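Researcher: I'd like a structural prediction for the single chain below. Treat it as a standalone chain; there are no partners to consider.
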Amino acid sequence: MLLQEEIINIAKRAKKASRILATLDSKKKDKTLLFMADNLLKKRNAILKANSIDIKNAKAKGLSSAIIERLTLNEKRIVSMSDGLKNVAALKDEVGVISEMRPRPNGLRIGKMGPYRGNSYYI
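Model: Treating it as a single chain, here is the predicted structure.
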């Protein structure tokens, strides 16, 4: 399989998984985020080893030093990524929450639901 095909397949699986994750209740989402945070730390040695290979290949391909810097992982960055996931898990889950509910003269109630994909939806 070509690298491009593999990347497309990974992206398709990620998109499918994102739709499933969006439907999970808050506790399951938080549990998933915390699992990911813990595994970043548990598997940091393997991650750093794979990243060093990626950086070596990036340099061989002539990528700019700015791009290489953004791609380079170290202990501090992995801990920061893990902490970021934990911080997201600690946030209130606003997906599907309806706010600003207002009755219309005809009795229809209209509210703002969000955030979802950065948009506000009215029901």
